[in-house]
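This part of the workshop introduces the protein records we will be handling. To make this concrete, we reproduce a full record directly below:
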Amino acid sequence: MLLFFVFFQGNLNLARVFWVNKDLLAWNVDAQDGSFFLHASQHAQLQLTGRGIEGADTIIQLEVDTHDLPAEVLERLPHISGYHALRLPRDADCKKLIKCQLAVGASNAYGAPIDASGVQLPGVLDDVLRYDGPLGVTFSETECTFSIWAPTAQNVRLFLYTEPSGGEPEAVIQLDEKHNVWTASGPKDWVGKYYLYEVTVFHPSTLQVEICLANDPYSRGLSANGERSLVIDLSDHNPENWDRLSSEKPMLHCFNDMAIYELHIRDFSARDQTVPENLRGTFLAFSEMESAGVRHLRSLAEAGLTHVHLLPSFDFGSVNEVKEKWKTLDYDRLEGLPPDSEEQQEAVVAIQNEDGFNWGYDPVNWGVPDGSYSTDPNGPRRTFEFRSMVQSINRLGLRVVLDVVYNHLHGNGPSDHLSVLDKVVPGYYLRRNKDGVIENSTCMNNTASEFYMVDRLIVDDLLMWATQYKVDGFRFDLMGHIMKRTMMRAKTALQSLTEEKDGVDGSKIYLYGEGWDFGEVYGNGRGVNATQLNLPGSQIGSFNDRMRDSAIGGSPFGDPLEQGIFTGLSLQPNSLPQGDEENMAKNLARGKDRIILGLAGNLRDYVFVDFEGREVKGCEVLTHDGKPVAYAASPTEIINYVSAHDNETLFDIIMMKVAESVSLEDRCRVNHLASSIVALSQAIPFFHAGEDMLRSKSLDRDSYNSGDWFNRLDFSYETNNWGVGLPPKSKNGEKWLIMRKLLGNESLRPSKDHILAAVANFQDLLKIRFSSPLFRLKTVNAIQARLQFHNTGPAAIPGIIVMSIHDGDEGEPGLLQIDSNFRIIVVVINARPDEGILKVGLLRGFKLELHPVQAASQDELVKASSCDDGTFAIPKRTTAVFVEKRCC
């Protein structure tokens, strides 16, 4: 017996066995000369003793299968490659077994137990018990039908309530299970009532049969804080003329014409005095047509902006939806404190989990608008008000992108109020590692889109937002943690929507997201995932971090002082040692190549002359870790940006990185310079709200929970929110020494004139972009044929990028004419701290003059830019655009 205790490795708290289809289980153990048994207990009585697993109702011997796991299994579960197959007998009743506590025990040739493990079920659920019929609440003229997919449940009951919280249910209805789904029906007058499901199910986290009260995974309405699901007929809660909205939407000819502005709903109006107090921070603030924020959006739309990207606005867990319980700051006191004080962040942090602010990347119920942005979190108001917001933004001339977070969920387990899916089908929706532990590489409770019903739920949810809320696009948080198959299925389903049948033109719905590759999915570890390098040809966009890092410097995970082209690398170094002059010059030249590729849409096949004078394709230029810089097959597969809600604002990161001697005026010019490469690139431009107003968060690098104080947007342009105290210590404390010096320097505080100049310059960039189709070429061939870079190779003047875009002439051979106004456009970007003068021989003979928009600019340095027969003189830190006009 001593040997048994030494070598027995059993642990039922771990689930190292995978039930992969109706016939096979897989386990990474030595299958030679041993016996394997599946143990099942309906009442979760399994336990380990000195004799192995005891307490089973049913014990089934498994046959060792000498073949490798089938290819279709490894396609779905590539991380268990090399596991041994264990075959079930043909008469095993898998539909009954999966409702039990399960464990597999292994014995040696002498019958002594050597190992035991719990079982992961997603594979067999997908193989045998997936479901394609109606889910959620559906309606006929007389009935409501409730349907929930819960194949592992031993029982499901419906609790029906009159009130949004408290009290006993007015009715308890037993659901029937058939065709892999539990259902019940009731009268149509149940609309407006609330409900929960009582799910009796074995839960692997507790090894017990639990009785869970859960919201409907297909909820379309909720009471405050998701206490209960709401029986809601979405067709009953439309703003006036809602059914005509599709035909009223602003024109979008193709995705190349997009320009996106990323905005947080609460930031937009929380401190806007021109919005009624009860509407600040809500969906309805967007309907206040004369508010400062709405006027700002209208001016951006008139300049050429096409889409507003709203940070998560579905039900999330981090803000109490009962506003009366929110704690607030004493703004008058905080505004009187020094700009580099610690007191502001202390006050913010003290209430940060009890105020009304959070970014919302902690989803609970994907299919319902969040109640904290509604005037009433109970009942149907949140539905009506979200629709009113979409309608109002559309009427401003802007389409709406919804930021969706399908890669993780807030809660898990059988008792957490913020757990939903893990109560209904425990161990299925959340991705687990080889031991059965929930993966958390995305910060919390990763979801598993590789499984059929998770994939289905995501696609169903997207279709609901598109048809019921008329959302125009979707941005996917940590899209690389979602399978490419799911993304492609979503794109196909959405773009097949038609106005005639669905009230929506799906061909205008665009998908993009964060294509980062890390965690358990890295290198296609769970299947082909939706990462940058896997998406070429998909027509799904991904963020281009290569341009951002080269322009601004470093990465979000590097030294905050590391410089890029626009922040002074080699040209005006700061105090951080960044190599000797030769190395800095080489890094400057490499960064310029990456920006060139970004300007060309980051296309893998675009050919240009690199800094060494070689003619190379974009995919042949490599990042520091050996990956291709350029990877897209189409310009609409790239989202170019230099700032987003993550990390410091553009203004703040510039303030950190530039040399101490750089004046405030020049720092503001760097902000504009960085925005210009995004606005004038061939990819889809993306801007962080306030980037156009020198927005600051007082140097906060991660303001997701930093309250209205650090996240303030001021559409009166009186302040950019710089110098409102040291940012929260937990995320920024190690940099406080650097920050104090900056925040305490009053000469670095922008005035209203600085902010207004930035607003005007930014809108000029949008006007220039939309003044010519040459900035929005649609194909790789068109970009290769028309787009040319000058001042390249080893003899190039450092820090200056010259880009020409050529049009053809009607009736002449060669390029087709697509621009009726300009024959050629030349963009010169001078990142140097001094004037740049250069001759471009290939541009001699063109009659170039400053673009009409810039000729009328209030920026004197832009207006001072000149071109004389191929010789350009561009003031410091300036982007100048020249055109040759066609004759009238």
Observations:
- The two ends are 100 Å apart (CA to CA).
- Residues 1-6 have pLDDT under 50 and may be disordered.
- The longest strand covers residues 194-203.
- The CA atoms of residues 339 and 745 lie 9 Å apart.
